Amino acid sequence: MFVKLDAELTPIDPRTEKITGPVAGYIRFKELIELQGLLGLDPLFIEQCSDFSQQNTLGVWEDYSFGVINIVEMENIFKDRDTIGLYISKNLFLAIEIIDKDYSAQKAFEAALQQTIVRERNIPRILNRFFKELIKSHAGVYHRFRKRISELEMRVWEKIEEDSHFETELSNINNELLTLFSYYDQLEDFCQELAENENEIFTEEELTIINLLSKRVERYGANIRILREYSNQLRESYQAQLDLHLNKIMKIFTVVTTIFLPLTLVAGWYGMNFTHMPELSWKYGYITVIILSIAIVVLGLCWFKKKKLI
To answer: Rounded to two decimals, what is the model's pTM?
Structure first.
């Protein structure tokens, strides 16, 4: 599908008509191979498309730029991604379907054509709108992850004891954030390559639109960096809570041990069974040791309570 970027979006056939004005097209990979010679594409990028690369890359030639991008679905970040090739020149913008199982890329291209107002139908604006449609599900990614992390944070402060599922859930969030961080980082490089405009296919006015696209992706990447810092702080808070809980338990054991240490000394002393120990034959020796032991415990408890150790 090729259309002129005019008021009517007039369909054209590049095999029979010369591309003279701004034209946008959406084709499949096998059609790209057929048009390779007509468009003057370097075979290297045809190979990159056929390899289904998972990297977002852009190559700059003398009169066109050609790249491959992968679309992350927010519903399932780790599932196989749709892959789209992009051909951009002064007069032609092509979206090449390499993998598009749910037709989302095709729908995004059609929406980009229809939602761009007539007087602004040029290649940079269609490209900008196409990108926005592809990643529109990413608009709420910050609030979605922020909510998930906040819920985990509430669990940290509500439960002092160890949460067996906390580490797993936080680890899953961190893995998703790392994947998105890498993805946006590649998209930033892609957009910056376009904005550098080495082959001068964009005018100064059109570069403003490309820079807006680059800033949008950069903002998404910055949000992910904030979320990663937040999740790391949460992990540290969780570990601090566990350490505090453990310290309280150790404190109790220490107090108990300290209180009963004199009793251990008394038991050891009278367990030596020397021949001449008057207390062993004394009528009140047994009750005296009992009273002494209780007194030691009570005095120990009072002293620790006075020092606010219990």
So the answer is: 0.71
